[in-house]
Task: inverse folding
């Protein structure tokens, strides 16, 4: 129970910071990720280059972070596909899942470009992420609407915290390299999106799922194990 309370407390702190950042971003103009889909910026060094003169530790941190992020966005796509295959025809839940899935498709497309830009090896667990994500999404959706939302809540809690930790780690990257400010802003944007999904799940009865605490603990722990495995493999 103590660990659950700590997780909830940290989620509140992160989510509060995210809402403040989201308000500022909305007023600032285009989303950071739009740089990767805007033809006018296709030759911009911020989307083409990667820091070269950095320590081996910083390079390893960058590569493991983007490898995990790409795998995580892949898994998220397949989680939502699994949920949509089961609950897509539900007039209330189907559109919610579709909207979140559409955002994850965009996230994956951008992460795929960032993986190439920064010359990062994709995870060797690509198929595991795909199949595991679909299985998790479909099984929790078969357990009911609330369980599907509980799955989303648990996954996005871990991912939101993970992105927040990455932003701290990226402080060691050279701020004067054109790719680094954009990298940080994209991570902030995606973190905001993931925590928005978390809020949507809570607003749609995730915490009314049978054995909510147990389900959240199992899904959250599985996500943390997957993150560590993808860092290495």
Result:
């Amino acid at each position: 129970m103590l660990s659950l309370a700590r997780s909830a407390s940290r989620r509140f702190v992160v989510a509060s910071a995210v809402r403040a950042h989201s308000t500022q971003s909305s007023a600032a103009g285009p989303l950071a990720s739009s740089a990767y889909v805007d033809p006018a910026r296709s030759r911009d060094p911020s989307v083409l280059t990667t820091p070269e003169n950095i320590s081996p530790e910083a390079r390893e941190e960058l590569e493991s972070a983007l490898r995990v992020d790409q795998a995580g966005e892949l898994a998220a796509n397949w989680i939502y596909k699994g949920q949509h295959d089961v609950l897509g025809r539900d007039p209330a839940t189907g559109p919610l899942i579709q909207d979140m899935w559409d955002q994850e498709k965009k996230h994956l497309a951008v992460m795929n470009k960032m993986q190439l830009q920064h010359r990062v090896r994709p995870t060797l667990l690509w198929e595991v992420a795909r199949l595991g994500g679909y299985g998790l999404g479909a099984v929790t959706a078969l357990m009911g609407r609330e369980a599907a939302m509980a799955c989303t809540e648990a996954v996005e809690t871990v991912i939101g915290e993970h992105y927040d930790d990455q932003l701290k780690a990226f402080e060691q990257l050279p701020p004067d390299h054109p790719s680094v400010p954009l990298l940080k802003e994209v991570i902030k944007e995606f973190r905001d999106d993931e925590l928005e999904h978390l809020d949507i799940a809570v607003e749609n009865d995730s915490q009314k799922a049978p054995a909510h605490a147990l389900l959240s603990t199992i899904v959250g722990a599985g996500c943390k194990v997957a993150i560590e495995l993808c860092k290495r493999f």
In short: The chain has a mean pLDDT of 87. Residues 56-87 form the longest helix (32 residues). Residues 125 and 229 are 8 Å apart (CA to CA). The chain has eight helices and no strands.
